[in-house]
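Notes to self, DUF2510 domain-containing protein:
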Amino acid sequence: MVAMDAPRPITPPGWYDDGHGQLRWYDGSQWTQHTAPLTRPAAPQAPAQPAAQPRAQVRSEELVRVKRSKLVWILPVVFVVAALVGALSAVALWSSGTFDSEPLERTYADFTQAESSQDCAALVAVTTQSFRDDLYDERFTCASLTTRPPVSREGDPVWGLRLGSVGILVVEESGGDDLDDEYDLSSSETYTFIREDGRWKLDGSD
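result:
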């Protein structure tokens, strides 16, 4: 009795990895010369990132609004503080000697010179109408100046202040008129000045 060999497993024809980094065709009984590149596995894809969330929009009704009633008292406070800061700065400059007091002192000197020389045009140039009316206790005219005895007035400015278009000058005065030796001026006068017609003018005294 002849023994029969066990049946060999049959590999179906197809492309198989031949161990050399490529595919080779197997015809079912043997390897052939037909080859093909080995297909690489696809690279793993990075996990999808969640989409960025849009920034929350601030609604206009969520904004804090300043009520008009608050502005009524906030604005005056701001103006008062600014005025005080300006005034303190001006006083500090004057006291330190860096504040230019020449305009006020020069105007006062021109006034005393015009008064003593009875120069009406010069007096009008450095004084306001209201100052002249108060000085002569009547509506001032050039006749008011010439019909009165000339006044010899000497003054020594001791303190002053200029804030914008307003000025103050404190003067220690002495003097008198040329006709009456008993009439003597000796006092501390506070003069106020304003800017008018492009220059400083005396506007009041106390």
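- The radius of gyration is 53 Å.
- The CA atoms of residues 119 and 145 lie 8 Å apart.
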